[in-house]
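call fold(seq) -> tokens
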Amino acid sequence: MGLLLKRQIADDCLLGVWEITEDYDTLFSQVVLSDFDLQRLNSFQNESRKLESLSVRALLQTLTHRGARIIYNQFRKPFMDDYSYNISISHSCRWTSIMLSQQRRVGIDLEYMSHDMERLAHKFINDKEYITPDLALRQQHIYIHWCAKEALYKICDKDGINFQDNLTIYPFEPQAGGQITGLVTNNHLHEEFILQYEIRDNYVVAYTYK
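ret:
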């Protein structure tokens, strides 16, 4: 399948989603890898992890038509080695997503709704947040919260953030897509972010930029 979605979010933000349907050899043949990339790829023991890594490179090349390399800091936050873009990356099941901006901070998360997230909700939902009592929508609502908090975590450099204590999603009713607001509070900042989310083919995608 390859490129599933390419969307201009704002004048300076680009969102892409890749669906992994290729086998390893096919996907490997589509990308140009540096020695560092090859070393990192070969360090993965799991085939699915290798496919994820290759899909990130394939999607990045498709979105930018550039050969810039992705590097990571001590918090596993990705950067372009030539600083041409701010970048955020997420993958789940067979989808990989990237958000890029030359000027803005970005954060994106992608999750396939395959688990009973409600039994984990007590670990990241706080008492200021609202989860619908509608059983038909409850699972989606919790996943949206999780994805939104992951996106906030990524845009804020991942340092000193606890999902339950430092991230709050203001109450909203779950839909197939929409706009929500999140608050980040810790020792470094007190800042609100507008997030967009959508549900497609049992995946939830949430992203923010600022």
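The radius of gyration is 17 Å.
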